[in-house]
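debug: dumping io for the single-chain case to check the tokenizer round-trip. Nothing else runs in this session.
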Amino acid sequence: MTRAVVFNVVQLGEFPATRSKARDGRNRLEDILAGKTGVDLTIDFTGVTAMTISFADEFLGKFLTSLDATSQELTLKVTGLNTENAEAVTICLERREAQVAVLDSDGILKLDGAPPLPETFDTAVELGEFKANDLAQRLNISPQNANNRLKRLAAVGALRKTRTIGASRGGKEFSYATVTARVPDTDGLSMEVPLTHS
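debug: decoded output
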């Protein structure tokens, strides 16, 4: 069982600009996640008219670079970005050499970040739930290369990695599922709801 957590960035203001405001928001988010595992996290920028690159870097960039989504069994997506804010996030990711799954206004999931991970993520979204060999065959790459890419995608929360029971040949085998494209409805500034994967 997993739980959904939605963090609404607008609680920090419609025009968040300072690093101190970003640190406050990042600390709030980290407090919400403290001690939790199995979380589907959505960082929602809906209602944020404009933000500075320094705010995006201090809030999202530093959060992403400190994140170990695999050990926390956490998936992460960003949503609600207007054109200007999407540009600030992209610049922040480039500077930090980070990646994040972004749900756009059309409901399409994309990975914002350096290649070849966005192309790998697109294929993972097409597959839905899969194993490393499925991805390797689809991309015509070696299983080791597929495992390396999947490890990086799981580490940034773009995939959920689950150990498969009864793995063949006695080794460890994992299945993967991409972050969901669904965002729970929220009335408040942040919320948590139980969520089960089908």
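debug: round-trip ok. The mean pLDDT is 88.
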